[in-house]
């Protein structure tokens, strides 16, 4: 274990450094996603080695549950708050988190618009779900309970996990306002690729 | 509110929020990798890591002073001890030892046997000149500068280069006493 602030300082430098290397928000998110992706790939290796032996998840709900519980627990010390299926699209699932770690200590200036630091975690998830073509948007909804808008960094960590496990997806993080709550939740949206859904249907 | 009595490194670490060390280690690895890709030259990466460490250090010192209850150190010896026993412990969860003092008491070594930044890391042949943990030297330099000590921090031993421990040489260059903006007798 290390202190939360050690991680916070480090993550803050990661973001600030990347801000100097980009011209716009999309690029910044992309770079954070890539950083998270790299972390996710290694987290997947570690976890597979330690906890799952050689068993690979082949079912959609299996991998989602793996991310929501096992991966979350290793990274953040707890399982994610909830896992939901999107109602509008067959290929969308959402993992909700009340307070995403990377959003706790970062505030986003207004001129950065919809930028979300959850991009870093989304990258981690993507690795988990990855496939050749999968495009899975993870919407992680995390409620942020403090009084100021927090930089919602898409944790591209999650993206790395999905890819490595054979479930390609586009994974993105978004702020979602919540009734009765001052700060919005962060939603990680996972949109699985066509191949994943087809394979799932074949497996019955 | 009365200032905290000074606490040991263990006591402070037990009271701060902690996160999984692997997340920390892997995130640091991602940073180093990004720097290597962007900057290409190992020397440039070393410099950037030091700069990032410096940026962290100048902010970290406030948190350190607030949470540890340490007040001003009498001399540099005490400073080094506090960094090794309390500072490292409260942020990285490990303690360092202080060795090899020079005759004037202005230069010493901080030795780390355990270093969470480097778990799972091996340096490829192309990066042999890289000081992977260089962020640490920046953190120490930045933090000490905020308490009026100008220092020079260099690596003596690095396990990623085949040595048996991590050894940082901290040399006090100048102590700048705090200047008050007004004089009492004016």
Automatic annotation (TrEMBL), chain A:
Source superkingdom: Eukaryota
Keyword Endoplasmic reticulum set for record: yes
GO BP annotation list: endoplasmic reticulum to Golgi vesicle-mediated transport
Keywords: Endoplasmic reticulum, ER-Golgi transport, Golgi apparatus, Transport
Any one Pfam family match given in the protein's UniProt record, by short name: TRAPP
A Gene Ontology cellular-component term: endoplasmic reticulum
InterPro entries attached to this UniProt entry: NO_sig/Golgi_transp_ligand-bd, TRAPP-I_su5, TRAPP_component
Keyword Endoplasmic reticulum belongs to the record: yes
Subunit structure: Part of the multisubunit TRAPP (transport protein particle) complex.
Protein name per Swiss-Prot or TrEMBL: Trafficking protein particle complex subunit
Lineage of origin: Eukaryota, Viridiplantae, Streptophyta, Embryophyta, Tracheophyta
Gene name linked to the record: LOC103712497
From TrEMBL, chain B:
Pfam families: TRAPP (PF04051)
Domain of life: Eukaryota
Subcellular location: Endoplasmic reticulum; Golgi apparatus, cis-Golgi network
Keyword terms, alphabetized: Endoplasmic reticulum, ER-Golgi transport, Golgi apparatus, Transport
InterPro entries documented for this protein: Bet3, NO_sig/Golgi_transp_ligand-bd, TRAPP_component
Family: Belongs to the TRAPP small subunits family. BET3 subfamily.
Subunit: Homodimer.
Primary role: May play a role in vesicular transport from endoplasmic reticulum to Golgi.
Protein's recorded name: Trafficking protein particle complex subunit
Organism: Phoenix dactylifera
């Amino acid at each position: 274990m290390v202190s939360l602030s050690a991680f916070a300082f480090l993550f803050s430098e990661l973001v600030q450094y990347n801000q100097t290397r980009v011209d716009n928000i999309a690029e910044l998110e992309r770079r954070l996603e890539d950083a998270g992706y790299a972390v996710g790939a290694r987290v997947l290796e570690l976890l597979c080695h330690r906890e799952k032996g050689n068993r690979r998840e082949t079912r959609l709900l299996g991998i989602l549950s793996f991310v929501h519980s096992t991966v979350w627990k290793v990274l953040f010390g707890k399982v994610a708050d909830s896992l939901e299926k999107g109602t509008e699209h067959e290929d969308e699932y959402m993992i909700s988190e009340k307070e995403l770690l990377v959003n706790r200590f970062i505030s986003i200036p207004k001129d950065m618009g919809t930028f979300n630091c959850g991009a870093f975690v989304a990258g981690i998830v993507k690795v988990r779900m990855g496939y050749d073509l999968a495009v899975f948007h993870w919407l992680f909804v995390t409620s942020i309970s403090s009084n100021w808008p927090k930089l919602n960094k898409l944790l591209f960590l999650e993206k790395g996990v999905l890819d490595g496990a054979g479930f390609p997806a586009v994974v993105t993080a978004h702020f979602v306002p919540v009734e009765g709550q001052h700060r919005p939740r962060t939603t990680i949206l996972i949109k699985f690729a066509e191949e994943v859904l087809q394979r799932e249907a074949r497996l019955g | 509110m009365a200032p905290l009595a000074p606490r040991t490194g263990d006591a402070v670490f037990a009271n701060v929020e902690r996160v999984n060390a692997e997340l920390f280690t892997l995130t640091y690895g991602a940073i180093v990798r990004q720097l290597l890709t962007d900057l290409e030259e190992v020397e440039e990466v070393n410099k950037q890591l030091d700069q990032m460490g410096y940026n962290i250090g100048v902010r970290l010192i406030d948190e350190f002073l607030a949470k540890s209850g340490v007040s001003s150190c009498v001399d540099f010896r005490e400073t080094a001890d506090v960094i090794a026993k309390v500072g490292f412990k409260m942020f990285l969860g490990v303690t360092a030892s202080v060795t090899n003092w020079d005759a004037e008491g202005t230069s010493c070594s901080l030795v780390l046997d355990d270093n969470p930044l480097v778990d799972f890391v091996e340096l490829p042949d192309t990066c042999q000149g890289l000081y992977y943990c260089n962020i640490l030297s920046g953190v120490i330099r930045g933090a000490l500068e905020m308490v009026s000590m100008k220092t020079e921090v260099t690596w003596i031993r690095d396990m990623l280069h085949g040595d048996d421990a991590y050894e940082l040489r901290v040399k006090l260059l100048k102590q700048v006493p705090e200047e008050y903006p007004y004089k009492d007798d004016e």
